[in-house]
Design brief:
This protein has 390 residues and is of the alpha/beta class. Helix content is 45%, strand content 14%. It folds into two domains: 2-127 and 376-388, Glycogen Phosphorylase B (Rossmann fold, 3-Layer(aba) Sandwich), CATH 3.40.50; 132-373, 3-Layer(aba) Sandwich (Rossmann fold), CATH 3.40.50. It has helices at 13-22, 40-54, 66-75, 108-114, 131-138, 168-184, 190-195, 198-206, 221-250, 282-288, 306-313, 326-329, 342-353, 356-373, 376-388, and strands at residues 2-6, 26-30, 58-62, 78-82, 101-105, 122-124, 146-151, 255-258, 271-273, 289-294, 318-321, 337-339. 45% of the residues are buried.
């Protein structure tokens, strides 16, 4: 049994390739997605030739590619894709309606926004834990090196908000909306969606904020404005604020960040480390930290981000902001811990730093839960099962 895996060098690709192989599927890789020396038409032609030659069960990719869907629809082969990012603007491309599609979205709010465009080809499916890979890498490593750790971007290098060419009153209004959003809800963007006016979108559009491509199924100017301009800035605001406050509360040497982002806004109490390699170094940080923080990007409105699954796969203790879907898969206080405000974050961090046995039991329970029910292999099998019963 063959499949074609259309690759663009997503960090998640190796885990899915190994998962397919584990269940007996031969994976043929098409690496044109990461080849910027050839144009779209050549990629389409090359993929068509591989499909004709290999006659795969389906073509698979991490995240949705309209060009792959177009090829599969014309040839008559199934296209499976699992999103690992949110937002994925491409799911609003008209190619999402193709009958070949089997698109799996991990954020339920994102799923609801597009499912009616292709009811038989769009599904909800959470992400998975790379249990086997990290277990093999880490072995029985248990030595703690860090108290509280956050691994990830501050998003200031990807944050276009500060460079927006908009009026000062508009900038102040947007800043106030973001502050209110952070205070009102521990996750999502509902407050901003309800209070962002058409005139605000119009001003953002004048600065170049518009649909990233032609052929969308609807006008997504508001969606782009929020997710390309505001959620990055909110991530920066929240992550810097929480880390600085924790460092102020706990003192130097307790709060750690592993990042490639600019760190000039972080207080001197936060221990700064270089970014770590996702596949080979990050698991050790998760295992060697007493508390692993997750502060979810606001564009992931309800879903569980990959960092959650990664920490738990490493037998790390997770303290994450609340997301609605967490309680569908985990028992809070048994498998992981959550917070809805900075005060709750501080209190739980303080508690679990001084209660080793409880913390380690929760980390163990979380690992066993994802190992049994939520591995990447589990997700691959679910995709194939759902598609085979269509």
């Amino acid at each position: 049994m063959n499949i074609i895996f259309y690759r663009y060098n997503s960090i998640c690709e190796p885990d899915y390739i190994e998962a397919f192989k584990k269940i007996g599927i031969n994976v043929i890789e098409d690496k044109d997605g990461s080849n910027f020396q050839i144009d779209v038409q050549e990629k389409i032609m090359n993929l068509g030739e591989i499909i004709a030659r290999e006659k795969p069960m389906f073509v698979f990719s991490i995240n949705f590619f309209p060009l792959v869907s177009r090829v599969c629809d014309r040839i008559g082969v199934k296209y499976l894709t699992e999103t690992v990012d949110c937002p994925v603007f491409e799911i609003y491309h008209s190619e999402i309606r193709n009958t070949c599609n089997n698109v799996f979205l991990f954020d339920y709010a994102q799923y609801l926004s597009v499912k009616n465009e292709n009811p038989n080809g769009i599904f909800y499916l959470p992400l998975g834990a790379p249990v086997e890979r990290v277990s093999s890498l880490l072995g029985n490593e248990k030595k703690y090196k860090y108290d509280i750790s956050f691994v990830g971007s501050l998003y200031n290098e990807k944050d276009p908000f500060m460079n927006l060419k908009i009026s000062e009153p508009s900038r102040i209004k947007l800043q106030e909306l973001m502050e209110k959003q952070i205070l009102e809800e521990p996750c999502g963007i509902n407050y901003i969606k309800e209070n962002l006016l058409e005139k605000d979108i119009a001003e953002l559009k004048r600065d170049g904020c518009s649909n990233p491509f032609v052929g969308t199924i609807e006008n997504i100017d508001t969606f782009v404005a929020i997710n390309n301009y505001l959620t990055y800035h909110m991530a920066y605001m929240e992550r810097v604020r929480y880390l600085n406050k924790l460092a102020e509360e706990f003192g130097e040497g307790v709060v750690n960040i592993f990042t490639g982002s600019m760190s000039n806004e972080l207080s001197c109490g936060v221990d700064l480390h270089d970014s770590v390699k996702t596949l080979t170094e990050m698991p050790f940080v998760f295992r060697q930290s007493k508390i692993n923080l997750n502060i979810t990007m606001r564009s992931i409105q309800t879903g569980i981000p990959q960092r959650v699954w990664d920490v738990m796969a490493c037998r790390g203790f997770l303290l994450t902001n609340y997301q609605p879907e967490l309680e569908e898969y985990f028992d809070v206080g048994t498998h992981l811990e959550t917070f809805c405000s900075y005060e709750e974050l501080k209190e739980k961090a303080m508690y679990y730093l001084s209660h080793d046995a409880e913390r380690e039991k929760i980390a163990h329970n979380g690992y066993e839960e994802v190992k049994e029910k939520h591995s990447v292999v589990n997700r691959v099998m679910s995709m194939i099962r759902m598609v085979s019963t269509k």
